[in-house]
Amino acid sequence: MSLRTRVAIAVGAVVFGTLAIVAAVVYPAVGANLREKNDQALIQVAREAPTIAAKLKQAGTVGQLVPFGASQLQILPNATTGPTNGFVDLTAHDVQVADGRAGPYFHDEAYGRVDYRIYTMQFPGDPGTLVRAALPVSDAASTQAALGWLLVVLIPVGAIGAAAVARLAAGRVLRPVGRLTETVERIRATGDLSAPIETPGQDEISRLGQAFGAMTAALDESVGAQRRLVADASHELRTPLTSLTTNLELLAERPDDPSAPALVAAALAEAGELRVLISDLVELARDGQASFHVEDVRLDLVVERVAARAAGRAPGLAFELDCRPTLVRGDPDALEQAIGNLVDNGPGVPADDLPYIFDRFYRSAKARALPGSGLGLAIVRRIADMHDGTVEAIPLRQGVKFRISVPEIAVDRPTVEQTTARGRPAIPGTAIG
């Protein structure tokens, strides 16, 4: 069952139930209102009895049931129980009303196959004389019956009409959903995530389509990045794997060859390069999905640790530090890795290569003869992005200056001193050149 049909059925059911409730309230209310109006009319007719009595005496029709508009009027002097002239018999209760021992009252009674509503009261100023006003109840009954038939017809017709209108309206409202569904099915069938999704407007469905379009665009970009990563990785892995395989084959063929130690050393070096490359690939493949441990970090202390480690590896190089206590908020291990990659980057970067050095697997012509995978600076950029920061390479007359910036958190001086005393890191935001 389609969504439009379900909407139409739901609306039809709601309208049917609503009209049924309204009918259940209106039908008896109309009946009660008609009865109230008839009773008021009978009271008014009975009160006109003194005016009419003189005319009835002249006409000699006192005691008879005479028409008075839509009603009937009867004046009975010396009322006694028993039959009357052409109308309902008098009861003891009627006699009590005529004598003033009981008050006026209404009752329903049939006479001559006609049901009447009868109002009985004492003739004003004349005890013993009875006044009765009667009105056929068939008039009110027919009006109420007509209303009942109208409601019986109106309720299902209204429900069916509402369901039909709701189905048409639902078709118009859900048309963008249909287009979105067709696009999704086309994407599923073709695998083309770049298929455009047209959802103009600002309503909820349009916003859903726009959000879905943004999601497919991001997914397409992610899939493209994964494909490029796989292609680049396969290219980068092919050379060291080929060299490693060749050296191992030579060792297997000539284990006693005097050059075997050199081949072993070359194989170990190539295996080390593969290990670094695979480690970098895994780091990049996470694409920010790895656990990101956030804490207050003393960025100046991280820089000092990286410089000390680099100085130990390269005792012939001099490192100059210009640090001040700086608190940032981030992952201390990731920040240390990023700064370490910048320090280990090598002997400068040609100006022509600067726009590309943060791309995956990019290596300048000067650096291709050196060990490395071309992923270190790409990892630096990803870590900077994770910390809402930036990284850039600034050309100098001699060499190049790398600068990574992350947001610094402003804190009071005592807080920094306390953090230093405790020997643990702090929060985001500084620049390192």
Account of the protein in words:
With about 425 residues, this protein is α+β, with helices and mostly antiparallel strands. The protein has three domains: about 5-155, 2-Layer Sandwich (Beta-Lactamase); about 205-285, Signal transduction histidine kinase, dimerisation/phosphotransfer (DHp) domain (Helix Hairpins, Orthogonal Bundle), CATH 1.10.287; about 295-430, Heat Shock Protein 90 (2-Layer Sandwich), CATH 3.30.565.10. The chain is about 55% helix and about 15% strand. A five-stranded antiparallel sheet has the order 1-2-5-4-3. The chain has a three-stranded antiparallel sheet with strand order 8-9-10, with helices on one face. A two-stranded antiparallel sheet has the order 6-7. The protein is rod-shaped, with a radius of gyration of 51 Å.
- Cα distance, first to last residue? 66 Å
The CATH class assignment of the largest domain is: Alpha Beta
Uncertain segments of ≥5 residues (pLDDT<50)?
A: 414-433
Mean pLDDT: 76
Beta content comes to 5-15%
* Domain unit count: 3
Structural Rg: 51 Å
CATH fold descriptor of the largest domain: Beta-Lactamase
Q: In which order are the strands of the major sheet placed?
A: 1-2-5-4-3
Secondary-structure-based class equals: alpha+beta
State the major sheet.
Answer: 5 strands, antiparallel
Q: What is the H/E string?
A: HHEEHEEEHHHHEHEHHEEHE
Task: Tell me what the CATH architecture of the largest domain is.
Answer: 2-Layer Sandwich
Number of helices: 11
Helix content: 55-70%
Instruction: State the shape.
Output: rod-shaped
Total strand count, please? 10
